[in-house]
Amino acid sequence: MALAEIPGEWASGSGAMKILNAPHLGSTAIAAPSATSEYMLTGSARRMAVRHARRHVRGADAVYALKAAREGKQETSWLNPHEAYEAGLKAFIVRILDSTVSAEFLNRWKRWRKRVALWVR
């Protein structure tokens, strides 16, 4: 796994991206995404990069995040979907991928995707 090769860089990079995304977390009764889901999204940079290269931006990323959250069975699941959490998760994805509100995150994330891609080719 690529992240195992660069644990210090991963820790500092994911922490910095979490700080940049803090303003985009849901403000409802339940935080969306959860810290676990946000961490998973940051770690899935290569998977999401493939989608971005194919121009299936926001929608496909939201579907991937929702599928991962449901399969994780923490805040939502296939049998017991939590509609408010899922709506917050989708809104978070849209906000962090919007260059007009998340330019600094997107620039860092693009550099991160390129860095991780070097390890997994």
General shape: globular
Kindly estimate the percentage of residues that lie in beta strands according to DSSP: under 5%
Kindly give the count of domains. 1
**How do the SSEs run, as a string of H and E?**
HHHHHHH
Which value, in Å, is the CA radius of gyration?
14 Å
Class by alpha and beta content? mainly alpha
Count of DSSP E strands?
0
Average predicted local confidence, pLDDT:
79
- Total number of helical segments? 7
Low-confidence stretches: none
Largest sheet: none
Percent helix range: 55-70%
Distance between the termini: 11 Å
Could you describe the 3D structure shown?
- The chain has 121 residues and is an all-alpha fold.
- It has one domain (2-120).
- It is 69% helix and 0% strand.
- The protein is built from seven helices and no strands.
- The N and C termini lie close together (11 Å).
- The model has no long low-confidence stretch (mean pLDDT 79).
Task: Summarize the entry for a quick read.
The protein is mainly α and 121 residues long. It has one domain (2-120). It has helices at residues 2-5, 7-21, 35-43, 45-53, 58-72, 83-96, 103-120.
Strand-helix topology:
Elements (H helix, E strand, L loop, with lengths): L1 H4 L1 H15 L13 H9 L1 H9 L4 H15 L10 H14 L6 H18 L1
Helix pairs in contact: 2-7, 5-6
Notable characteristics:
single chain; 121 residues; mainly alpha; 7 helices; 0% strand; globular
